[in-house]
Amino acid sequence: MIRRLLPHPYLSLVLIAVWMLLVNRWAVGSLVFAVILGVVIPLMTAPYWPDTAKLKSPGRIPGYLAIVLHDIVKANFDVARIVLFKPRRDLQPAWIVIPLELTQPEAITALASTITLTPGTLTCDLSEDGQALLVHCLHAPDPQAIVDEIKDRYEARLKEIFA
User: Fold this and answer.
1) What sections of the protein cross the membrane (predicted)?
2) Three-state SS string across 93-161, please?
């Protein structure tokens, strides 16, 4: 019964939280509308999600988000420093292929989104077989170090979160 009403409970919680953050005030009407959105949107989109994400360790999500937020703040300062103080001739932009061990589409999407949210990097494509991401880096003097950092810092944690 609950699964029929909330086919994607995590999505429902995220929708409620995002709506409340968007309205930027805690009012009963806003909360009621957020709950309505949190129930209706997953119900309407459920037919398009044949499989639901299998989370092995959802308790690790807050830690992952903390790392991502820390990296976003740090990368903002790094990109500002590059843009303001580094001569353009010293920039070393690069296209990097990140081989994937992740197989779940939701986990791959989370990794691609994390890379794109971090200033200075942009996920541009997923290979047809789903085995690699193409990433553009604003400044990559050592492309292999960036691949290793993404795999160690993000992909390894997402493998722990997703089954």
Assistant:
1) 5-22, 28-49
2) CEEEEEECCCCCHHHHHHHHHHHHHCCCEEEEEECCCCCEEEEEECCCCCHHHHHHHHHHHHHHHHHHH
Q: pLDDT by residue (tens digit) across 79-94?
A: 999 889 888 888 899 9
Domain spans in the chain, listed from the N-terminal domain onward: 2-48, 58-161
Q: Which residues contact 111 (CB under 8 A, 6 or more apart)?
A: 100, 102, 133, 150, 154, 155, 158
From CA 160, how far away is CA 163, in angstroms rounded? 7
What global pTM score does this model have? 0.76
Integer Cα distance of 108 and 101 in angstroms = 9
**What's the pLDDT band for 54 if we cut at 50, 70, 90?**
confident
